[in-house]
Amino acid sequence: MLKKILVAAFVAEVSLLAHTGVGNVSGFSAGFSHPVGGADHILAMFAVGLWAAQMGSKALWAVPLSFITMMIVGAVLGVQGVNVPFIENGILASVLVLGAMIGFGVKMPVGFSSAIVGLFAVFHGAAHGFEMPLNVGGVEYAAGFILATAMLHAAGITLGSIMHKIAQSKISRIAGGSIAVAGLALAIS
Fold this sequence. Notes:
Blueprint: H1 2-11, H2 28-37, H3 39-55, H4 59-79, H5 87-103, H6 110-129, H7 136-167, H8 170-188
């Protein structure tokens, strides 16, 4: 039953795009609200936390920290106008790959898993760096965006830790599979 609910929740919005545009890119509240307003962000950021929880140990802090650090690097590249190819594809791939990693229960060395999420984070950061203004409002937007991202990671870690204790990771693999299915819905639409 839970599996069906998770799949339905993640696939319900079939018309998703990998990155649909950000709207207002000035100010802390706009930055904070953006990651929680788009399914691509929610799925990817939550998946980072779930995967980190599934791997446990050092991954609990290293994997999300890698994402946030490299997202900032990507944003700086975008603000500087550096061409980051395949941004939309990278964002979509982040949902598909991270969902599959969770769904299949993939555990890898912390450095390698941090590198994977770091690569995806560059795409997420660059997408918004290109759109941010070079002023105080842009810096505030970035701060809000970073905080919301960290909170989504923490939510994924929290839920992943609870699920691991309850079902020895079976439910988190179902959730990861659901994230991957939602990513396929993104690709199809």
